[in-house]
Specification:
Blueprint lengths: L1 E10 L2 E12 L4 E5 L4 H4 L1 H11 L8 E7 L11 H11 L5 H4 L2 E3 L2 E2 L5 E2 L4 H10 L4 E5 L3 H5 L6 E4 L2 H9 L31 H13 L3 E4 L6 H6 L10 H13 L15 E2 L7 H5 E2 L4 E2 L1 H4 L4 E5 L6 H13 L1 E6 L2 E6 L3 E6 L18 H9 L3 H4 L4 E4 L5 H5 L7 H24 L15 H14 L3 H18 L6 H9 L2 H5 L5
Parallel strand pairs: 3-4, 5-8, 8-9, 10-17, 10-18, 11-14, 14-17
Antiparallel strand pairs: 1-2, 2-4, 6-7, 12-13, 15-16
The structure holds adenosine-5'-triphosphate (ATP), magnesium ion (MG) and zinc ion.
Magnesium ion binds next to helix 9.
């Protein structure tokens, strides 16, 4: 008898439908899986047979063939265990086909028949929705994730036996209700800008970076609060929208990093990979074709602490994704695209010993060592960092004063308003068919400001790209101020955040 159960396999961030067909017939007792299964799917044979027996159903000693259709697509991971087991039970007359038809099932089986959590369930829920499935059977710990944002009825399945009894109607399982998107409670925020004392210039740069989506490099001696400031960037960005939260949750789920019982992720991600991390770990790819740190930072913040210590191939690998907001990852079964639109914030010391320009201690670096250190920052990557600012050591009384800085919530309000202004202007450009890149995007620029910019570009020998960056930052500063046109003082401030242009011209 032929049986079919609907399931899905993950490719990149998406779930593609898979039809699990089982044929049980006369012949030697064998159990074969065909249709491009990967090793984890092959191992399903043992898990499925044990799980069925230990759930008090039978595996008749007959010739069993499992076909995963379509056959030209590689099927990955153990998520097909549950649909395979259900199809075997149908093919052997222990479960009615019509009870299952229209349902989609995913889940790994334990030998005891328990259903274990699998990655990518939110993507599977979206596929089930697109197929207008009657119901979606998922591991219990994935149920909140599956119910987040989709309408298809979700059933949290603890065991194979519970799945069968639910489908037969003898012990129906309640649908899992998707939790509404609650903003995280303000007091639960782990970090707040209020804790940072002094550092007015760096705080201002952080606000501009947040408002304009600019990348930011903080340069200063040890222990002045660079890491502290970087960690607080997510707290001043606008809250994730519902659609963004779904996207972020999908990424973490596919990467196997979504905690069990978690619904939507509602906080912006903050990723701080170590400087020794490999290019596949940061950019993505490698044998597992997992999303890298830049994808885990999508809609959030990527923090590169000790920027010059990062591997050269890592820094090079960041350039294209930073331009496109997408990373293309090669793998055995073709390439996949992962989103990677993040705010980059980086930190570094002003020199290898850390104390250059710090009044407290003398710098012990030779000019040669300093040159080598600065040269490690690749020119093309620096070109994509709009703001570089010095973070000096604050006076001791400023550090010791009990005065808290402005809280993140107040900064977030200004950032959100400035972003709305930029979005409105971009929409207006689009409406009249102007390109989204280029000068039109900056709105009006006063004649004095243009003359000022030309003079500054000549004096500082700014590359064309750097000039454009300065204009973009000035536009964000004008948006924070609520000014229609970019004026001289906006440009003058933007030029202050170009510390490295003054230190060393980028290598040719
Ligand atoms: N401006 C500041 N306001 C409040 N606390 C500060 C400030 N600067 C430093 N601190 C305190 O010093 C600690 C170290 O700061 P942080 O790790 O941010 O320094 P850093 O600049 O990243 O140093 P490093 O170069 O060594 O990484 C913080 O945890 C905090 O307790
Ligand atoms: Mg630090
Ligand atoms: Zn030094």
């Amino acid at each position: 008898m032929l049986a079919a159960v609907l399931s899905a396999t993950i490719v990149g961030l998406e779930a593609l439908p898979v039809s699990v067909e089982v044929d049980v017939g006369p012949g030697l007792p064998t159990f074969a899986i065909v249709g491009l299964p990967d090793p984890a799917v092959q191992e399903a044979r043992e898990r499925v047979r044990s799980a069925i027996r230990n759930s008090h159903y039978e595996v008749p000693p007959r010739r069993t063939i499992v076909n995963l259709a379509p056959g030209d697509r590689r099927k990955e991971g153990p998520a097909l265990d549950l649909p395979i087991a259900l199809a075997v039970l149908i093919a052997t007359g222990q479960l009615a086909q019509h009870a299952v038809t229209g349902h989609l099932a995913v889940g790994e089986l334990g030998l005891d028949g328990s259903v274990r959590t699998v990655p990518g369930v939110l993507a599977v829920a979206q596929a089930a929705q697109a197929l207008h499935a009657r119901g979606l059977l998922v591991p219990e710990a994935n149920a909140l994730e599956a119910a987040a944002g989709e309408e298809v009825p979700v059933y949290a399945i603890p065991t194979l036996r519970a799945a069968v009894q639910h489908l037969q109607g003898t012990h129906p399982i309640q649908t899992t209700e998707g939790a509404v998107l609650d903003p995280p409670p303000e007091d639960a925020a782990p970090d707040d800008l209020a804790e940072v004392r002094g550092q007015g210039a760096a705080r201002r740069a952080l606000e501009i970076a947040g408002a304009g989506g600019h990348n930011l490099l903080l340069i200063g001696p040890p222990g002045v609060g660079k890491t502290m400031l970087a960690r607080r960037l997510p707290t001043i960005l606008p809250r994730l929208s519902g659609a963004e939260a779904v996207e972020v949750t999908k990424i973490y789920s596919v990467a196997g990093l979504l905690p069990a019982w978690q619904g939507l992720i509602t906080r912006r991600p903050f990723r701080a990979p170590h400087h020794a991390a490999s290019a596949p770990a940061i950019v993505g790819g490698g044998s597992s074709a997992r999303p890298g740190e830049i994808t885990l930072a999508h809609h959030g913040v990527l923090f590169l602490d000790e920027l010059p210590e990062f591997r050269h191939d890592v820094l090079e690998g960041l350039r294209q994704p930073m331009e496109d907001g997408i990373v293309v990852v090669a793998r055995a079964a073709g390439t996949v695209r992962f989103p990677a639109r993040f705010s980059l914030i980086a930190a570094m010391n002003p020199c290898p010993c850390g104390y250059r320009g710090d009044g407290r201690r003398d710098c012990t670096c030779t000019p040669g060592r300093l040159q080598h250190y600065l040269a490690r920052l690749s020119g093309p990557l620096l070109d994509r960092i709009d703001l570089h600012v010095e973070v000096p050591r604050p006076p001791t009384d400023e550090l010791l004063s009990g005065n808290p800085g402005e809280p993140s919530s107040a900064v977030r309000e200004r950032v959100t308003v400035a972003r709305m202004r930029a979005t409105t202007r971009a929409a207006a450009c689009q409406a009249v068919g102007l390109p989204l890149r280029g000068p039109q995007r900056w709105g009006p620029v006063s004649a004095e400001a243009l003359a000022f910019m030309r003079a500054a570009a000549d004096r500082l020998v700014l590359a064309a790209r750097a000039t454009e960056r300065v204009l973009r930052v000035a536009r964000t500063i004008a948006d924070l101020e609520g000014a229609e046109a970019v004026a001289v003082h906006h440009l003058a401030e933007a030029l202050r955040y170009r510390v490295l242009d003054r230190w060393a011209p980028p290598a040719p």
